[in-house]
């Protein structure tokens, strides 16, 4: 899986699984990193930023909220954010927003 289009579809499938999780309320999803920069190879993970009301922005706290869904999408490398960080101009979030691809939520 080294094409951007394939990675986007993989992320969309992941989002569909996440939206089945009624305890998680996604606000934004972005693909960023090597797949956006056309530098991905067969060993690349898929960098995805997730914004949800329930997140604290700490992976070891947030990932357990969706680990069941993540098991089926082993190439996803999630980076979680909570809405306040997004709205307050976190520099890493700004970089993702400026260079990444927003994946629409259904």
In helices, the fraction of residues equals: 25-40%
Radius of gyration: 13 Å
Main-sheet strand order equals 3-2-1-4
Low-confidence stretches: none
Q: Provide the CATH architecture.
A: 2-Layer Sandwich
Largest sheet features: 4 strands, mixed
What is the third-level CATH name, the topology? Answer: Beta Polymerase, domain 2
Average of the residue pLDDT scores: 95
**Measured distance between first and last alpha carbons:** 24 Å
Number of strands: 4
Q: What is the approximate shape?
A: globular
Number of domains: 1
Tell me the structural class: alpha+beta
Percent range for β-strand residues:
15-25%
Question: Secondary-structure element sequence?
Answer: HEEHHEHHE
How many individual helices?
5
Query: So, the CATH homologous superfamily?
Result: Beta Polymerase, domain 2
